[in-house]
Design brief:
CBS-domain, alpha+beta, elongated, 5 helices, single chain
């Protein structure tokens, strides 16, 4: 149990990827073969979605395993979301100094 106990004290940046190193999609991103390849090559289980490149505010998070089950029609992420073909999870914003124990206590 020592490992489980010590991870609760670890700072969040020991386990999370900094946003500057994360592959991101935008609401106006076309969901096509190129996007699927970009997502799978990124190797993340979650991909943040921002409003646009010009206004890069994160509006939600896509779970890759759910996104890859959506039929490729060349539509935008926004179109698929508006038709409820995919779901955007609410983003959780943390500082790099947060720890897991405090994070878990907030739920």
């Amino acid at each position: 149990m020592t490992g489980a106990m010590s991870i609760g004290e670890a700072p969040i940046n020991d386990i999370y990827t900094m946003i500057s190193k994360v592959e991101m999609l935008y609401l106006d991103t076309l969901y096509d073969i190129g996007t699927v390849e970009k997502i799978t090559q990124a190797g993340f289980s979650r991909i943040p979605v921002a409003y646009s490149k010009q206004y890069p505010v994160i509006v939600g998070v896509l779970l890759v395993k759910k996104l890859l089950s959506v039929e490729i029609k060349g539509e935008t992420i926004a179109s698929l979301y508006n038709r409820r073909e995919l779901y955007l999870h609410l983003p959780l914003f943390l500082t790099q100094h947060a720890n897991l124990k405090k994070l878990a206590a907030s739920f």
